[in-house]
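S1.2 Input.
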Amino acid sequence: MGINFIFYAISWFIKHVDKLSDKLSPDFSQTPLPPFFVYAFGTVLTYLELIIGILLTIGLFTRYALVVASLLMITLMVGTSFQQKWDVVASQLIYSVI
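S1.3 Output.
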């Protein structure tokens, strides 16, 4: 699971992490989420995934890393639910259970 978080973060660093916030803002414009929250979340998301992935992979602060990872997945599922992308929510739910 940690490796998955790491490689997902690395893929965004390769694609230029600063573009993630710019991509998320229009995607969530039709949702009740405030634009500043979406932009801020997009800004820290990749770094948070990288930190969680590293901690899980090396086994450091595992319990705390899993709690933060669970909260991150819940946040992602809530945001995706506002977009009504149920297929993505389903895959996020499966990923959360694993």
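S1.4 Remarks. The radius of gyration is 13 Å.
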